Amino acid sequence: MKVLIVGATGMVGQGALKACLESDDVSQVVLLVRNPITLVSSKVQQIKVADFEQIQHSDAFQALRDLDASFYCLGVTSAGLTEAQYLAINHGLTLKIAKLLKPHNPDLAFIYVSGTGTDRTEQGRAIWARVKGKTENDLERVGFAAFHAFRPGLIQPLDGIESKTNNYRLMYKLMTPLFPLLKRIAPNSYVTTRQMGNAMINAVRDRATPGIAEVKEIIQLAAGTAK
């Protein structure tokens, strides 16, 4: 399959990229990036984009055709942002890219990394939950062949992957000794970056039922046991 990853430098995006590089099911990976990643692989094509709205006018746009899947892992924390700023990045940009892809990829499976607690009523008190809920709703209306909203909660970074956010990076380091305990007493309370990547690939390969995938469903998809 040919896969587009948006947000490949983030923690989840790194996990998705690693899974794609290791998977025999993935033949080509296209990365939409602002700054190129240091990576040598015959599978990978990087498209450097300063202005996403101008992608369709560049020669590189051809690489965004005939895609089987798009793993949308881009997003920022709401901390320090107004609702308008957060909405512009996490909703506005997401929808722009989605609507750009749709006409040229009729069989595309679009996987959006959302979050547990997302509010699809768009009426809740938490900015991030409202915005992610609105984004899920609007992406579903785009009309992709398959739309999946992955809602991880706590994510354990593996394979040397780290968050780009200092506070999150510190939190994950402090949490590291607790993950084995959580796995025993609350196995569906978190996912790993490895599981996120494998779940995305398996959801597309196995034509999993579209819709919302909470932590338990993500774990099942990663293991290949989802219904």
TrEMBL record:
It is found in: Membrane. Residues 3-115 form the NAD-dependent epimerase/dehydratase domain. Its main location: membrane. Gene3D superfamilies: NAD(P)-binding Rossmann-like Domain (3.40.50.720). InterPro entries: Epimerase_deHydtase (IPR001509), NAD(P)-bd_dom_sf (IPR036291). GO terms for cellular component: membrane. It comes from the Bacteria. This is Epimerase. It comes from Ferrimonas lipolytica. The lineage of its organism: Bacteria, Pseudomonadati, Pseudomonadota, Gammaproteobacteria, Alteromonadales.
